[in-house]
Amino acid sequence: MVKICCIGAGYVGGPTMAVIAFKCPTVEVAVVDISVPRITAWNSDKLPIYEPGLDEVVKKCRGKNLFFSNETEKHVAAADVVFVSVNTPTKTSGLGAGKAADLTYWESAARMIADVSKSSKIVVEKSTVPVKTAEAIEKILTHNSKGIKFQVLSNPEFLSEGTAITDLFNPDRVLIGGREETPGGLKAIQTLKDVYAHWVPHERIICTNLWSAELSKLAANAFLAQRISSVNSISALCEATGANVSQVSSAVGKDSRIGQKFLNASVGFGGSCFQKDILNLVYICECNGLPEVANYWRQVIKINDYQKSRFVNRIVSSMFNTVSGKKIGILGFSFKKDTGDTRETPAIDVCRGLLSDKAQLIIYDPQVPEAQMIKDLSTPKFDWDQPSQNIHIAEDAVKQSVKVVHDAYEAAKDAHAICILTEWDEFKSLDYQKIYNNMPKPAYMFDGRNVADVAKLRQIGFIVYSIGKPLDP
Ligand code: NAD
Predict the structure, then answer these.
(1) Which residues is 391 bridged to in the sheet?
(2) Beta 174-178 vs 121-125: how paired, if at all?
(3) Is residue 126 within 8 Å of 29, Cβ to Cβ?
(4) DSSP state of 288
(5) Is there a common fold for 3-200 and 242-466?
(6) Which fold has domain 3-200?
(7) What is the pLDDT of residue 49?
(8) Which of 142-146, 177-181, 205-209 is predicted with the least confidence, judged by mean pLDDT?
(9) Residues with beta carbon inside 6 Å of ligand 1?
(10) Rounded CA gap, 11 and 33, in Å?
(11) Carries keyword Oxidoreductase (predicted)?
(12) Which of 40, 115, 188, 446 lies at a CB distance of 3.0 to 4.6 Å from 419, suitable for a disulfide?
């Protein structure tokens, strides 16, 4: 029986390992983490992350061939294959601050693996890391290993939060980067291929050299984010000219070379990965003497920031140039539907923008707890572009101006405006007539996700702003 250990029981480590355990009954999987509350939650009925289908998969395997534990060293020592899926956030101080990946967690995991290993192991990069990280990891492992042999592979994860389980069950591709040419290299690659071959068709398992695999993950996220910034840049032009971004996206996407996916205009992309991975790419380009390439990718994030501030400005300017003392109902706080994850959610920037103009916010999200929202809004924001101008709203001030409620109607009641910031399905079928009846007039709708039926809302009486759509006559 192959023994797998995964260091890091987060949004990637938890679901990916649960699916490996589910699909490979002959493989034993231990997922370990330094966080006691996280592991306690993985072992409880209330998993630490919300992801459709995850509960069923975990419940089927937990205690059989899937284990969650804080005993990291014990499980690492016993494993044949060690996945490392720790966080790799953007550095906030020192060399590369605001751009480079912070590899502190990775380094300490690698040192621990070297320390506790008494048998040879395959170490798999599951986290997204800068290209060439494997070289540094190999150095840490070999210099601290007391003669034990390690093979480092890159196996970046392409799952998308909200659809993680279906993505893992049916991946577009599984990418494995390794060193075929070194002794044991081919065998290590084959061991990992054999794990995925339990359910992934042979032709979807792609093998490359280490650096291609590492860079492919950064490039894939950069391309995805670039599509969103491209359509968002066009949405601004639509608003200025009377074109409709949905019609433009549909016409553009019909070209089979372009395709329809990821062409929805919105208030901007969020999530823990896109911005951090592009900043990382920018930094790597700069370090490799490629400033023009760095500037090209930097612009993807600048457009995203511009889109969020454009949205806030539109709200304020539409409402007689001030939202001071006005109630604004916020529908949705997570960075996308079907996840409770709020990392880099555009809602943070939009809410902060409104709070800085002294609005009163009533927020509803079906998955994000109140404490998380208050924490997000009061945690100092690190401004990647201008680190000297970090933005901070004190927790007391946030608590005075923010009320968190448990349904959309409550959020909209007595509000001067409602603002959709996450595309949760339930927001499509709300009784907007009822909502309108309970709002002071004029009643505004600012749709940051293009989910509302603009014509119907206008018929009810709302003044509607929908990203990239013609404005009210
Ligand atoms: P996460 O913050 O949810 O999880 C990381 C976990 O690692 C945390 O629970 C943390 O406590 C744990 N950890 C850190 N250092 C540790 C150590 N030394 N020993 C044991 N545990 C340790 O992060 P995530 O969203 O799962 O992302 C993990 C990596 O995967 C990142 O590099 C990310 O860029 C990448 N990734 C994320 C996604 C996504 O959608 N979230 C998708 C693809 C790739």
Answers:
(1) 381
(2) unpaired
(3) no
(4) T
(5) yes
(6) Rossmann fold (3.40.50)
(7) 95
(8) 142-146
(9) 7-13, 32-35, 38, 72, 85-88, 105, 108-109, 127-128, 157, 159, 161, 272-273
(10) 12
(11) yes
(12) 446
Place of tokens 């970090």: 390
Q: What is the pLDDT of residue 380?
A: 82
Ligand 1: atom nearest CA of 12 is: 26
**200 annotated as a binding-site residue:** no
What does the alpha-carbon distance between residue 43 and residue 200 come to, in Å, rounded to a whole number? 28
Q: How confident is the model at residue 390 (pLDDT cuts 50, 70, 90)?
A: low
Predicted ipTM > 0.90:
yes
* Per-position DSSP letters for 120-183, written without gaps between them: -EEEEE-S---TTHHHHHHHHHHHTSTT--EEEEE------TTSHHHHHHS-S-EEEEE-TTST
Atom of ligand 1 nearest to the CA of 49: 3
Between the two ends of the chain, the Cα-to-Cα distance in Å is: 68
- Give the pLDDT confidence of 320-374 residue by residue, as tens digits: 999 999 999 999 999 999 999 999 999 999 999 999 999 999 999 999 999 999 9
**Six-digit token pair at 300?**
């993807």
In the β-sheet with 463-466, what is the strand arrangement from edge to edge? 402-404, 360-364, 327-331, 417-420, 444-447, 463-466
Choose which CATH entry (2.30.40.10, 3.90.180.10, 2.60.120.10, 3.40.50.720) describes domain 242-466: 3.40.50.720
State the burial class of residue 419 (Cβ atoms within 10 Å of its Cβ: 0-12, 13-18, 19+). Answer: buried
Amino acid found at 381: K
Model confidence at 384: pLDDT above 80: no
pLDDT band at 139 (very low <50, low <70, confident <90, very high): very high
Q: Per-domain residue ranges for the chain? A: 3-200, 242-466
Q: What is the pLDDT of residues 411-462, one digit of tens each?
A: 999 999 999 999 999 999 999 999 999 999 999 999 999 999 999 999 999 9
Look-up of token digits 């599951």: 126
Token code pair at residue 308: 């969020």
Beta-strand relationship, 81-84 and 121-125: parallel
